[in-house]
Structure to design on (134 residues):
């Protein structure tokens, strides 16, 4: 299985954080699975690190370095990912989802046949087969 990790999943996996579910941990550690991280995660982490260094303890460059060291594959944002955004529909008018990083990663997973691994409670409202909540 090819898995694209949501940013918080990456951070928890790299930190061996107890917030990472057993299921997510097992999927990430399964040598049969190929693990990807998006350049959107590096971008998101960089922005948060620069604006809230007291809360985010890792820079985007360090995240990228650690992901590569773990053997994760980098997934750059391509035009096909951006145009796949047009196919996403969010089915909850009462609780908007305003995270562009999540949306581009869902689009990347959808366009490239990956499974987007997340624990974000808003993700089921996309009703996309490429999303796996763990």
């Amino acid at each position: 299985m090819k898995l694209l990790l949501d940013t918080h999943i990456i951070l928890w996996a790299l930190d061996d954080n107890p917030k990472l579910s057993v299921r997510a941990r097992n999927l990430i550690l399964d040598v049969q699975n190929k693990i990807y991280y998006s350049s959107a995660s590096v971008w998101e982490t960089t922005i948060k690190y620069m604006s809230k260094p007291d809360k985010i303890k890792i820079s985007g460059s360090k995240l990228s370095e650690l992901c590569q060291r773990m053997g994760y594959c980098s997934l750059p944002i391509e035009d096909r990912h951006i145009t796949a955004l047009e196919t996403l529909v969010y089915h909850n008018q009462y609780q908007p989802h305003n995270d562009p990083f999540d949306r581009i990663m869902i689009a990347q997973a959808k366009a490239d046949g990956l499974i987007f691994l997340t624990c974000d409670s808003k993700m089921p409202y996309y009703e996309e087969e490429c999303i796996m909540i763990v």
